[in-house]
């Protein structure tokens, strides 16, 4: 069974897709930068699913490799748009992996705790930058 670290940040990120659908949410608008109302400088955040784990990535190359080689057969499309680099007021969205599932958080404290206590030993870096 998949487990979750139940912090406000983790609960918030469990609702990632729903929040991305709102321009008032913590993340960039779901509109592409070229669309009316989109935020310039953002990139697509792709969402994939392997029957157990969701993978979010901004890399088209990683997306294709995950689908071809790592069992992420369900391409759920573009969840929304994030900044690829830090912009004023944004925070990093950290991505961790424990060999079975990914954890996403904006909290450095939670990131460190997950790595030290919950087996998320692979720090996959920053998935993108978002507004808190």
Any overview of this molecule?
This protein is an alpha+beta fold and 132 residues long. It is built from 4 helices and 6 strands; from the N terminus they run ααββαβββαβ. The protein has helices at residues 8-14, 16-20, 60-69, 108-117; strands at 43-49, 54-57, 74-82, 91-97, 102-105, 122-130. Strands 2-1-3 form a 3-stranded antiparallel beta sheet. β4 (91-97) and β5 (102-105) form a beta hairpin. The longest helix is centred in the middle third of the chain and has 10 residues, at 60-69. It is flat, with a radius of gyration of 14 Å. The N and C termini lie far apart (30 Å). 27% of the residues are buried.
Strand order of the largest sheet: 2-1-3
Helix run count: 4
Number of strands: 6
- Portion in helices: 10-25%
**Mean pLDDT across all amino acids:** 80
Q: What does the overall shape look like?
A: flat
Low-pLDDT segments, ≥5 res:
1-26
Q: Kindly, what is the distance between the CA atoms of the first and last residues, rounded to a whole number of angstroms?
A: 30 Å
H/E series: HHEEHEEEHE
Radius of gyration: 14 Å
Based on secondary structure, the structural category is: alpha+beta
- As a percent range, the share of strand residues is 25-35%
Please summarize the sheet with the most strands: 3 strands, antiparallel
């Amino acid at each position: 069974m998949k487990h979750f670290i139940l912090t406000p940040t983790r609960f918030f990120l469990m609702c990632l897709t729903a929040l991305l659908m709102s321009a008032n949410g913590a993340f960039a608008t779901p509109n592409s930068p070229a669309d009316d109302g989109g935020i310039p400088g953002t990139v697509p955040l792709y969402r994939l699913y392997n029957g157990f784990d969701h993978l979010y990535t901004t890399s088209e190359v990683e997306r294709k490799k995950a689908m071809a080689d790592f069992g992420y057969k369900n391409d759920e499309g573009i969840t929304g748009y994030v900044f690829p680099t830090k912009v004023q007021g944004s925070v990093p969205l950290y991505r961790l992996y424990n060999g079975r599932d990914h954890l996403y958080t904006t909290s450095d404290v939670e990131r460190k705790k997950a790595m030290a206590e919950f087996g998320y030993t692979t720090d996959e870096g920053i998935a993108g930058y978002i507004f808190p």
